[in-house]
Design a protein that fits this description.
The complex is a heterotetramer, with two copies of chain A (347 residues) and two copies of chain B (333 residues). Chain A contains twelve helices and twelve strands. Chain A is an alpha/beta fold and 347 residues long. In chain A, strands 2-1-3-4-6-5-10 form a seven-stranded mixed beta sheet, with helices on both faces. Chain A has a five-stranded mixed beta sheet with strand order 7-9-8-11-12, sandwiched between helices. Helix content of chain B is 41%, strand content 9%. Chain B has helices at 18-43, 58-65, 81-87, 91-99, 132-145, 164-175, 223-238, 267-274, 278-288, 294-317, and strands at 73-75, 152-157, 180-186, 189-190, 193-194, 215-219, 244-249. The chains are: A alpha/beta (347), B alpha/beta (333). Chains B, D: InterPro entries: DH_E1, PDH_E1_Alpha_Subunit, THDP-binding.
Chain lengths: 347, 333, 347, 333
């Protein structure tokens, strides 16, 4: 590692002490992201946030509200609309010792940074041995009636690419702990925030700022009849459905993979070896959604334990519609998910 | 902010077709009337998401669109209801789009500002800005390819000038001498981002120098100044002399969208521009010039209001789409 | 369809008659691509080719050699280096009745057009009902010692995206017939040319200019013990290996899917239902390679017929190295493919 | 082609440090010697793929690099062997890179022109051009962030000025007033594409107007003209006054790469520039100015040749990499 990447950053003056945002007793998913970012910026003067409208405006979804007052324009950087440019900028800053956190206003616009993400950030360490600690935050997903170019699930655009980590928290607790680990990770990390959950999902209590390791899945609801492998919004959906099916005598084990890359195959496979049946759920379109990788892997690793084929649930292979009746027909609904679990469990 | 290059075009009405001036005025008034109704609908919770309006963009949008022939192409943005209406878009269709109704141009598949109709020669853009710029070069390319003298007029905001699409489209249009006119609607802000964080050039029209093409900045609240500049650019493009940039300077008088209180905006700017309502300014010019009298003005405004009210009634009554065929139409036959 | 998209293009003067390029008796994969493009440009005045160095230079790989002389600069369009721009240009031209064929100099650079491809081209017809007949040609793949940013397999970047068709011919005959269908198709089509095959693979005889329908897989080597599902360079590799394994008494049925989207699931599944064993092969990295979609689909559709799990063979999950010993260790080699087939067939 | 803005800087050597001039000359000579050897290696089939050389780029590459401090950052391209050598890159490492040897800076994982060493403050760019431009803004951003007075110097070709990365990087650097210097190596062609199909602006440095920053065009075969212009730009950046563009006009005297016969190039250009070998031109200036005498010139050229020969010998003898750890290092710890 070149000497001049040893952090030489002067201790960053904090212009205002205390948290950038006051947290509620049961912080939301949105508050959890903000609190974790705040925590890391306080802890490490090399961490800064860059993106469109992240300063005075506090970001389109208000994740960075209060950050400008607390950290100043040096560490809270408003950019022109230039996704290719500021993603490449983050790469250059990371190469020489900073730890940029890039905010994409909507995950849909990460398409404009696809080139630098896969060709500048992802492949760099393997090519050169240089570090590339960039965290890319992006609010993704549908159900907000935002239409084909404001509702995309983007994980499948990137999961094939070597050198990226992909983090998709499903709870406020994980949102905090996984963002902290992402920022401390020395690799380019795609941290995808389900914007539908921002204000709808709350933590059960105060948040811990302990890092949660990347690559460790979690059994969020134990069960014995069937395994539901999912992530992001699928987690709370899955748990609610599992609780309902418990009453019907179907015991669903819900596994939250939490990070798609690296993927904790062991935890998934162990659950399937126990239940012998598996459904994979995500909001993204089904064709080459990450469910394809998970299903293909499960049948490779646990074929002899499977009583039924692994079933994938994803959105229809269409863009995401704006109009409610259309969007609801495209994105998997709880009733449909429950029905699929029943069918596979009872088959 | 960008200084304007030339005096407002409204000093004199000499040599201008009164009939055309009246039509421009009518569409500007209708635009305002429809958007005011849509703001009410937004506040009343009738719309799906947020609402993007073009208050104080009417002069640029209608003025520029009015320089085209019906068979020319257009690639407008979310501030350009006026340009759509000029071309014959129905107000209720626009409302239906913001409501996700089955009667919107996309049948509710897309929605909000995505209501462009190709049968009116208008490109229906995605959210990514300014994706309409490269597409506009293609429409112009096709016209030139076929030996037609059609022109394609594309709009973008100040904030969009920093994007890949702006640069690569302008580069292509200039080296290939395509019949394009690129109008920059400089309303001082890109969402919350002020101009100085978007561009370091003195004027946005200075970017024309990078492409070796003409660039001019005009008062975007003066519809005739816009018409003069865009008219020249359209004539140049039609004559085969290549693309130009026209910057119209105005102010975004509402939030980025209606959900946005826009408390980040400098009060002075609001004060300065509250005195520069493009519709009122033009109305006064036409009254002073004797193109309109008070009765006509009243009638135009009443008709616009009635049309907007009727549109609102129809849009509200229109059905939501039916999902049965949702998987169809991903691919064309 | 708007009236002004009814082709109003004046018959295009052909400046020079006869083929743009003389074909050899057994045309190469490269010649097949050029001949099919030439054929369509002669046939339809709305078809034009646009890209970097496609004019006087005839393209980096010489696919369009002779085209400028034959068709002139109006229909053979050299561009600045502006992938985002000329891809969007093609979309605009297609909307009003032209049929652009875009050449990306290397498939690696299609990353710079990822945004317009997925947001402007792919989603447009579903959103609006307007046509979007754009064909995007890109030379992809490794084994030319060209390294991490000149050797990429790009199909997985796009296969998740609704509205795109993805065509990957494995023989000169298919290269011609599938390109003709792609150009005549009213949808954005990604036509991926394996550049390693350009001068290495020859047709068995003169080429037919009959279109080959998109979405129809082909059994290129019949067999009964095991199915090898593959595409592009995997086709001739697979057939050669199958012939070798015939001698060992292992009968391999090689299925060339030819188009990834649409995918001919029926032909694949029918073969697997016959052989009960399946290996999927591609040159792309394994993680979320298209093999994941194929494997997941097969176990969904033919689970009860499978004697063994579907095995995926793909490149290692790393960038593609430049140095021969490294690249050869990353990209699947014939011996490794044959060994996997033996294992699965005999298991 | 771009006209130059200022007279060549070589009119006088007054006030220039002879020691520095000698070092610049030595590195230019070494660059040529090494590239001539590599051309021979290419022809001899010793290299993996093709070979990109910087013949006639030596003045821009070495001249610009020589304006930096050792702790400044640099983001050079495939014409800039000279800049790498100025910083201490070993010739044999470059040859090893084009051969995919284990001893190349990437150990054969990447290769050919991808040999930049971060320990020399040099970014190792991917193939996508000019991806090094946004990265260069980040290195400059980091320096400013830390309150250091480091500068980042980035190079690109004429053909790269049309790309997204060029525009977005320049926009960012200008609005944030980053300590960047952007050097455009205008060698008249982008692969086979002549300048007129790349840009419609009179000069490539005119693009600076779009970003409200200084832009200047100099004779890229005159190393002192380059040094004067880049030196000014570096001083400006270091003083906190923001980025600039410096265009150096030269000619690509070989094919795009050695496989390319470049028969599309105008003969006149070859003729004009065959008389403008930057190394010879500078040599004559130094001889005339009494900074060098014939013996020193002979010694410098002999030493360079010997160094290049030794490098070739070592690179040829070096081992190919061993694949056992190929899956390691995709992720950093
Ligand atoms: C590529 C891209 N990045 C970000 C956005 C989010 N966004 C939508 S509108 C907007 C501001 C646009 O400003 P400007 O171009 O000035 O147009 P205005 O809204 O002011 O009329 C932003 C950042 C987007 N639509 N596309
Ligand atoms: C985004 C992208 N598109 C295409 C290419 C292929 N390519 C490599 S070098 C080159 C020409 C570059 O010309 P210029 O920028 O003038 O640099 P020069 O080689 O002339 O020094 C092209 C088209 C590329 N590397 N990156
Ligand atoms: Mg604006
Ligand atoms: Mg060049």
């Amino acid at each position: 590692m070149p000497t001049d990447t040893i952090p030489g950053t002067p201790p960053a003056p904090v212009l205002r002490s205390g948290p950038a945002q006051e947290l509620s007793a049961n912080p939301t998913y949105l508050e959890a992201v903000g609190a974790a970012l705040d925590h890391e910026m306080e802890r490490d003067p090399n961490v800064f946030i860059i993106g469109e409208d992240v300063g005075q405006f506090g970001g389109a979804f208000k994740v960075t509200k209060g950050f400008l007052d607390k950290y100043g324009p040096r560490r809270v950087v408003d950019t022109p609309i230039a996704e290719t440019g500021f993603t490449g900028l983050a790469a250059g800053a990371a190469l020489v010792g900073l730890r940029p956190v890039v905010e994409f206003q909507f995950a849909d616009f990460i398409s404009c940074a696809f080139d630098p993400i896969i060709n500048v950030l992802a492949r760099h360490h393997w090519r050169t041995g240089d570090p590339m600690p960039v965290t890319m935050r992006a609010p993704f997903g549908g159900r907000l009636r935002a239409g084909p170019t404001h509702s995309q699930s983007v994980e499948s655009y990137f999961a094939h690419v070597p050198g990226l980590k992909i983090v998709m928290p499903g709870t406020p607790e994980d949102a905090a702990g996984l963002l902290i680990s992402s920022i401390r990770d020395n690799n380019p990390t795609l941290y995808l925030e389900n914007k539908y959950l921002y204000r709808r999902l709350r933590a059960t209590g105060p948040l811990s700022m302990e890092p949660i390791p990347l690559g460790v899945a979690k059994v969020v609801h134990p069960g014995k009849d069937i395994t539901l492998v999912t992530y992001s919004a699928g987690v709370h959906q899955g748990v609610e459905i599992a609780q309902e099916l418990d009453k019907e005598g179907i015991s669903v084990e819900v596994v939250d993979v939490r990070t798609l890359v690296p993927l904790d195959v062991e935890t998934i496979v162990n659950s399937v070896k126990k239940t012998s049946r598996c459904v994979v759920l995500h909001e993204a379109a089904k064709r080459l959604g990450y469910g394809a990788e998970i299903a293909a892997t499960i049948q490779e690793e646990a074929f002899w334990h499977l009583d039924q084929p692994v079933v994938r649930i994803g959105a229809k292979n269409t863009p995401t519609a704006t109009s409610p009746p259309l969007e609801d027909a495209i994105i998997p609904q709880p009733a449909e998910i429950a029905e699929t679990l029943r069918k596979v469990a009872r088959a | 902010m960008s200084k304007t290059d030339k005096k407002a075009g409204s000093e004199t009405l000499e040599g201008r077709d009164p009939e055309l001036l009246r039509r421009v005025y009518e569409v500007m008034v209708l635009t305002r009337a429809v958007e005011d109704r849509m703001v009410a609908m937004y506040r009343g919770g009738d719309l799906l998401g947020s609402l993007y309006t073009g208050h104080w963009h009417e002069a640029i949008s209608v003025g520029a669109a009015s320089c085209l022939r019906p068979d020319d192409y257009m690639a407008p943005i979310h501030r350009d209801l006026g340009a759509h209406l000029w071309r014959g878009m129905e107000p209720w269709q626009v409302m239906a789009s913001f409501m996700g109704k089955a009667t919107s141009p996309t049948g509710g598949r897309d929605g909000t500002l995505h209501y462009g109709r190709l049968d009116l020669g208008i490109y229906n853009l995605p959210s990514h800005i300014p994706a309409n710029f490269p597409v506009a070069t293609g429409m112009a390319f096709a016209a030139k390819y076929r030996g037609e003298d059609k022109v394609c007029l594309a709009f973008c905001g100040d904030g969009s000038t920093s994007r890949a699409d702006f640069h690569e489209a302008l580069t292509l249009a200039s080296v290939q001498s395509l019949p394009n006119v690129f109008v920059i609607e400089n309303n001082q802000y890109a969402y919350s981002t002020p101009l100085r964080l978007t561009s370091h050039s003195a004027k946005l029209s200075d970017k024309a120098v990078a492409y070796g093409i003409p660039g001019v900045t005009v008062d975007g609240t003066d519809v005739l100044a816009v018409r003069d500049a865009v008219g020249e650019a359209v004539a140049r493009a039609r004559a085969g002399d290549g693309p130009s940039i026209v910057e119209g300077v105005t102010m975004r008088m509402h939030g980025h969208a209606e959900h946005d209180p826009a408390d980040y905006v400098l009060k002075e700017l609001y004060e300065e521009y509250s005195k520069k309502d493009p519709v009122e300014l033009f109305e006064n010019v036409l009254l002073k010039g004797g193109v309109l009298d008070d009765d006509t003005v009243k009638k135009v405004r009443d008709d616009a209001r009635q049309l907007a009210i009727a549109a609102r009634r129809k849009a509200l009554a229109d059905p939501m789409p039916e999902p049965s065929n949702i998987e169809e139409g991903v691919y064309a036959d």
